[in-house]
C-alpha cells in the first residue's frame, strides 16, 4: 500500500491513519526517503527536519493506537515555506542576507499545527524575501515546475507548491502578499487558498508587506485546503458535504484580469465557466472600473512597505541579492510618505466600492494568472523579460490582495491554468464550501 501513499490526498492519508491502515512513522519515512532520492529534491527543499519529523510521527502513531488522535491530519507530514520560523532549524527567507539565521521558537502557526499532530518535513525554497511571482532564485534554488521542468514554478511559495505537486509532501504551507500561494498553485495544478489578512497569526513569520501578508495552504484538493486551514487555526474545518453550485451567483471580473491574456489561461477560464454554468451557477458580467484604479496604486503600496521592512538588511549588503529582486525592493525607496498615505486612503475607498458592487453575488471569479509559466532560462537570461513576466504573474492575484478578499484558486482544466474565486474578508468557510462545489463541477480531484 505504501507505494500508493504519494498519490493520496492529505485527508485520505488521515483517514487511513484513523482506520489503522497507515502508520505515521512509515508514512514519514516514505516521504523523507522520496525527498532524499528525488533528483530535484535539493531544488525543492532548503532544509529537511528528519529528527523532528520522526519524533512527531512516533507520537502521532502512539495517539492513533490509543484512539486519541487530535485532528484528521494528526500524523500527516507537511512542508513549510522558508519564512516560517522553526526552532533550531534555519529560516532564511530564500535570501543570502539571512544566511545562518536560526530562530529559537516556532512560528505560532507551526506551533498550533504541531499541537494538532502535524509532522514537519522541512523548509521549502522560495523566491528571495518572498518578493516575486515567478519562483526564480539564483541565490538559493529555483524549483522546477512540476508539470514542465523547463518552466518556472511560480512564486514566491515555489518549493511549497512543487513539493505537493511532485508527491514530496501531501500538503504545504505558504504565504501570500500579492499572489504567492495562488500563482504557484495555478502553475503546478494545485488548490491554493489565500486567507484574509489577520485570519492566521503572523508571529514568527518573516514579513514582506504586513498590511497585505497572509498565510495559506497549497494542496491537492479543497478538502485538504480546508483541513490544513483547520490545523493552522486550531478551529474546526468547515463542512463541505453536499457542496453545490446550484443557484450560486458568480460575477466575472473582466477589468484588468483579461488584458492581454494568453490562450491557455483564457481557455482554462472558459472551461471553468462552462462547468460552473452546467452545475447550476448563474454567471454574470458587471462593470468594476475601480479595479483598474486599484491596480494603478500597486507601486505605491507594496514596494514602499516591503522596502520599509527590509531596507536595513538590504542596504547593509545589496550585492548579496539577486539584482531584479533588489530593484523591486528599491522601487519603494523614494516614494514620499504623503503619497503612501494617500494611496491607502484611495484604496480604502476602492475597497468600499468593491464591496458594494459585489454584494449581490456569492463570489467574484477570474483567471488566476493571465500567462502560462515562462521558461526558466529565458527569465535568467533577460532581466527586462523577468520584470515584465513577474508583473503579469501577479497582476490578477493582486486584485484579491488589493480588495482585501480571501481567494481560492482551483485547477481550471488545461495544464498550468487556474480559476480563482474571491469573497469578502473573513469568508474562508463559505469560500471553501463554494470551492468544493466548483471543484466538483470542473471535475478536479
UniProtKB/TrEMBL annotation:
Residues 134-154 are annotated as: Disordered. It comes from the Bacteria. Residues 26-430 form the Amidase domain. Gene3D superfamilies: Amidase signature (AS) domain (3.90.1300.10). Pfam families: Amidase (PF01425). This is Amidase family protein. The lineage of its organism: Bacteria, Pseudomonadati, Pseudomonadota, Alphaproteobacteria, Rhodobacterales.
